[in-house]
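A further point concerns the way the authors explain their paired sequence and structure data. Showing the layout once, in full, would remove most of the difficulty. For illustration, here is how one protein appears when written out as sequence plus structure tokens:
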Amino acid sequence: MKTFKSILAFQRAFDTDEKCREHLELSRWNGTPVCPFCKSTNVHRHPNGKKFNCKVKGCRKIFSVTVGTIYENSKIGLSKWYLATYILTNHSKGISSLQLAGWLDCTQKTAWFLNHRIREMLTENEPRLLSNVVEADETFIGGKAINKHKSKRNNTKADGSFNPIEDKTPVLGMVERGGKVITKVVTKVNGEDLKLFIRWNVVEGSTLYTDELAAYKRLGKLYTHETVNHGSGEYVRGKAHTNTIEGFWSLLKRQIVGIHHSVSPKHLQRYTNESAFRYNQRGLTQDVKFEQAIGRCEGRLKYEDLIA
């Protein structure tokens, strides 16, 4: 694995699509080409070095190293893909599509699609269960209702007052102290969703710390459950607190407010996945985080599916 002391060193290492293709072959296949259709290693490399032909009877398909990955059928060169991936995985708050477009010399629309495909790549589809000491909390993402025009407030009551979180999108989150974070965007916060989210992602018998929200009740049958009462000004009681997960919420909100300014609920999960990836890989070097991302390139996200 190559190491890079700076983004300039990274660009020198992957300044051509050919260098990136060779690296992708090594990263994806460990040097032995594999047919993405039948998984056979009985393949023949074409003279141009870029295409392969499966020699298995009944398959015989032609493919390249990008088939079956987020790079498939992309008109963007691999060198630009690699640079965008390196930036998104290592920049503390991510990068806006407008800024990325300027750096890659492409349109904002192309950079926006590129960003979302990389975020899809950063998604951990089968996260390891959290254990030991776990903090759970919920947050709400969206602009402040007080800053919206009155006609756009969906939560105005008869008396003219409004619920400040009614127009926001709720996000559930859990973090293992010293370990990883898991997030889930939901339409509303209720006891059933919270309990299922925790049961699916936390090993039974673990210690669980939450706030006083009533939806967390009855978790004591499966976990050692303690709460802190934020409503009465209690934030720490011995080892019981939710400061770790709240620290992650702070990072996520600085990313959204400071870089993207606003995010639609439809795409919010990918943004939380991006932030979770950087948080979960926080102890790794920049080159290792890049390699981890490239190792997740399997799968595709088509534009029509993204905007559907």
In short: The chain has ten helices and eight strands. The mean pLDDT is 90.
